[in-house]
Design brief:
Largest interface: A-B, 42 and 43 residues
Order of helices and strands of chain B: EHEHEHEHHEHEHEHEEHHEEHEEHEHEH
Distance between the termini of chain B: 49 Å
Pfam families (chain B): PFOR_II (PF17147), POR_N (PF01855)
CATH superfamily of chain A: Thiamin diphosphate (ThDP)-binding fold, Pyr/PP domains
Structural class of chain A: alpha/beta
CATH topology of chain A: Rossmann fold
Oligomer: heterodimer
CATH topology of the largest domain in chain B: Rossmann fold
Order of helices and strands of chain A: HEHEHEHHEEEHEHEHHEHEH
Strand order of the largest sheet of chain B: 3-2-4-5-7-6-13
Largest sheet of chain B: 7 strands, mixed
InterPro entries (chain B): 2-oxoacid_oxidoreductase (IPR052368), PFOR_II (IPR033412), Pyrv_Fd/Flavodoxin_OxRdtase_N (IPR002880), THDP-binding (IPR029061), Transketo_C/PFOR_II (IPR009014)
Structural class of chain B: alpha/beta
GO molecular function, one term (chain B): oxidoreductase activity
Number of strands of chain B: 15
Shape of chain A: globular
Number of domains of chain B: 2
Low-confidence stretches of chain A: none
Helix content of chain A: 25-40%
Protein name (chain B): 2-oxoglutarate ferredoxin oxidoreductase subunit alpha
Helix content of chain B: 25-40%
Mean pLDDT of chain A: 97
Shape of chain B: globular
Strand content of chain B: 15-25%
Strand order of the largest sheet of chain A: 2-1-3-4-8-7-10-9
CATH class of the largest domain in chain B: Alpha Beta
Number of strands of chain A: 10
Keywords (chain B): Oxidoreductase
CATH superfamily of the largest domain in chain B: Thiamin diphosphate (ThDP)-binding fold, Pyr/PP domains
Mean pLDDT of chain B: 96
Low-confidence stretches of chain B: none
Amino acid sequence: MAIRDYIRQRFFPHMWCPGCGHGIVLNSMLRAVEQLGMSKNEIVMVSGIGCSSRISGYVDFHSLHTLHGRALGFATGVKMSKPELNVIVPMGDGDALAIGGNHFIHAARRNIAMTAIVMNNRIYGMTGGQYSPLSGHGTSATTAPYTNIDHDFDVVKLAKAAGASFVARSTTYHARQVTDILKQAIVHDGFSVVEILSQCPTYFGRKNRMGGPSDMMEWFKENTTPIGSKAKAENPALIERGIFVQDEDKPEYCTEYDKVIERAMGGRS
Amino acid sequence: MSENIKFVQGNEACVEAALYAGLDFFAGYPITPSTEIAEQMSVRLPQIGGKFIQMEDEISSVCAIIGASLTGHKVMTATSGPGFSLMQEGLGYAIMAEIPSVIVNVMRGGPSTGLPTCPSQGDVLQARWGVHGDHAIIALTASTHQDVFDITVHAFNMAETYRTPVILLFDEVVGHMREKLVIPEKGEIPVVDRMRTSVRAGVDYHPYLPREDGRLPMSDFGAEHRYNVTGLAHDMWGFPTNNPDVVHTQLRHLTDKIKNNVRTITRCREYFMEDARTVLISYGSSARSAFHVVKNRRARGERLGLLELQSLWPFPYGLIEEKCAKARHIVVVEMNMGQITRAVKRAVRNPDRVVLANRIDGVFITPTDIKNILRLIQGKGV
């Protein structure tokens, strides 16, 4: 199927600013779905609130645009009640880890088969540039005019610690890697977390003097490195890209619940 | 037949009824005094191939049932006061996106953590107006376990008919008291399933285009029709819009589908109302004390009557006005500071005749409490 057949053309033009990285994430994701040969009817896309969350409306899947931070709660209900559906949950950084932080760690703990995409642009875009839990110490935002004193989460470490059985990271500069990672994340039988660093030139870039969109993507290129590379050993400040966890042995939640049903029915199922 | 007679808590009666109505998905978070509902669901649902999940909080619980409802399942969650407050944003979402769902609130004393193990009817207005924005709501209640059963089935039927969340407001006495419950045979109480669209695959399906009767035929997530569900104001395809005409029509529809069907939705029971000069109005467990007073005083020839509300919202203004037209005194018996009293005052022609008989201290309101109020009204002193 052609990529454009996966989108809802009447929803366009999209509302993202020129230079925003979210369109690249959408593109990479659709390529992953296309390369996996998935049908539109088997995918449910559940998003929260924010710039990132509009992505669910742009795709011609079953789409559920929910409440700020609650996407994983809704997604859990969808997946558990109909496990044959493939559930993809794109979220922004505030969405996933501020208001939704508790839902995030619990979804990871349960290991319910869904793909959580954290579209990390380090800022609240839709409300106009306030700092997020991923902005990081020393950054600037409209609510941090004297620079931000909040420290950020490392999404990968957090997801690992919470028990996610698939954890990966990449950037919008590495669009092909994103597609490749998402393909593996979607077919993974467990909770997958994929963090994608995405640029917000309008707010994060401007407030933090990072130049235009291409400069920000250059920054991704220069400040990230494949997992375990020599460059990382020489410069520990580099951010690693790739798949950090891929545990196929941790029992998946819906499969485990099927066993509960079997026990409850005493073998009558 | 004897298998159908049980000696149970009200919370268990609610579980039995939900299963009778076809519930097969429950998500919840334990909170006193509603916890037995979650516990029973975790036992019963997997026995019939249904699903139970204990979420991390009440917010995600209500979200999970909305997700499950969209895949075509009958869903429910249960909570109490503080948990119900947390559920408000999900409740609003279910109203806006028109998702059939049932939310049980076994009320406890508040505000805040208040009185977890004591009866209260303090969430009547939270049920009505807890959600931000203008909206209609259905909230039902019950005083006996048989009522709990009937009204719970009714709640599912209303949720599926009008594509809306329905709130069940019980109180701690009803939730925890044990009494007899007769479970009706299959088919004895009608069970409504949601209306599914007859639009064929490939034909443009409008998930939010209401029929003339206000009903919206649904398509399950995972079936042929793909559409967008959002809490934003949306058009007939479910796509976000700011168009004032579209927004106006959509919000009117949300209100009208309930307002225009008040007679189907509301339920009220009358005792000794034919010639009543003093009318007691009550609901939930306090209606049991009120009934006791009315029955005993009738025996002495006093012209007392009781209206027991089984549905609180939409409020049956017309019915109350009609039934109280000849009453000299109207006494509203409730365990709060007058949340339904206010609605009754709006309904009747002479609001000055409306008096509140209440308790707010976590102690169940007794017939004696009500009798004392009656003596005051009748000028006999306490």
